[in-house]
Amino acid sequence: MIRPTVGFIVYGVHKDGLMDPMGQPFIDDALVERSKKALVDRGLNVVAHDVVVATKAEAAAALKRMKDDERIDCVILFSGTWVWAAHLIAAVRDFAMTGRGVLLWTHPGSQGWRPVGGLVMHGALMEVGIPHKFVYGAADDPVELRRIESYCRAAHLKNWLNMSTIGAFGGRGMGQTCGVADPSQWMKMFGVDIDSRDTTELIRTAQAVTASEIAALEPRIKQLFGDLPAKTVVNERSIRLYLAIKKLVEQNGWDFYTIQSFPGLGDDYSASCFAQSMMLEDGVGTSTLGDFNTAMTVLLLTKLSREPVYYGDLQHLDKKSREIKIIGDGACPPSLAGKLGPAGFAEHGIPTEGEAGGLSVQLVCKVGEGVLARLGRVDGQFTMVIARASIFEPPADQLEKRKLECGIPFWPHGFVTAHCDMDVLLENWTNEYACLGYGPELYDDLVDFCKMTGIRAVLP
């Protein structure tokens, strides 16, 4: 779970205790303190500048301090009273050139003339073309604070991605056209480098895993599943593969990764279902089939949510009821199992897509509120479809019937009601995969992330 760090700068020309004609200070210091505390209470680290900014020199010093502090994800410019925009604009522009976020916050109220200071800066930033978010809202208004929080969280993600690396084990899986990546575009858009390895090193590393390493993992497997899988060669290979992926991701310095799974690895050694399930449980952004767009979506949701993320086939949609079934091919973080039963072990079960077989996870996702999302490309341009969703469990006496509908009842199921226009969702969805994140706040976070990075958000 991320905790963004924000710089907090109060600005206004009538400062240092200057009174209005009625004898009241123009800048309400108590209001400023309440506003800073409200940010901390929302989970933000606040680095406050101790000088109210009015002059060009003060603005330059304040923004340089924030620019030089690598912890700062974005700067919040808080309107204390009115200001001469020309005294701030150059310093704000200089900070914004780092790519970090700028947010203008104006607390409502006639006293102090705060809206005047907020609007003149908002207009100045628009005139010059400096990207920013303008929030006009009270420190005790949860809706307005959520707008601030979502922007700061998105800014943190954008900054975290810069100079990160996604790794790829193998190439494109199952002939996917809609998951491939252009390394130059990823570097330009996100600052992300794409690295790759074939799967021979992965297989060698899995084969070299020791019996003691497997034994050390068993208590965690038992905690997550309530039992250990049967001791067979196929099952042991699945466990070895997980430990090998974990080793190589760390060894290569990858921040997230994708894996081809099959053809290749799933035929020659083991299906990747169990390994992917455990890496998701570990909070690592990942995907199968060399699908870079799903990997990015899973990463974003993982960083934003308190829960692990599930990605699987958007296997069936009922347009009238807006029900969607997400059925992954054996991969799902086991802690997402709901009240209908704990996570269990199954098998991959499709010889044409991984002849070597392997462990998979069987469960029904727990009840909750969240989002369905996926990054994609349309004619070379990034889009992201984002929809609010409610995850539900079918009645226990209907569960087996519902699971049999797809013909593969032993794979993980997520039953979801999408709160959107289903025709718009289908028209804009760019892949068979759906990424499911728990937490209603993820919706606003992703929308702000898209705005900050130039992704076209589709909100059906």
User: What is the name of the CATH architecture of the largest domain?
Assistant: Alpha-Beta Barrel
Main sheet summary? 6 strands, antiparallel, barrel
For this structure, the CATH topology of the largest domain is L-fucose Isomerase, Chain A, domain 3
The average pLDDT value, as a whole number, equals 95
Q: Whole-number radius of gyration?
A: 25 Å
Tell me what portion of residues adopts beta-strand conformation: 15-25%
Regions with pLDDT < 50 over 5+ consecutive residues?
A: none
What separation lies between the terminal Cα atoms?
A: 27 Å
> How many structural domains in the coordinates?
2
Strand count: 18
| Structural classification | alpha/beta
Number of helices: 15
Proportion in helices: 25-40%
Strand order of the largest sheet: 10-11-16-15-14-17
Name the CATH superfamily classification of the largest domain: L-fucose/L-arabinose isomerase, C-terminal
Could you say which overall geometry the principal axes of the C-alpha atoms support?
A: elongated
CATH class category label of the largest domain: Alpha Beta
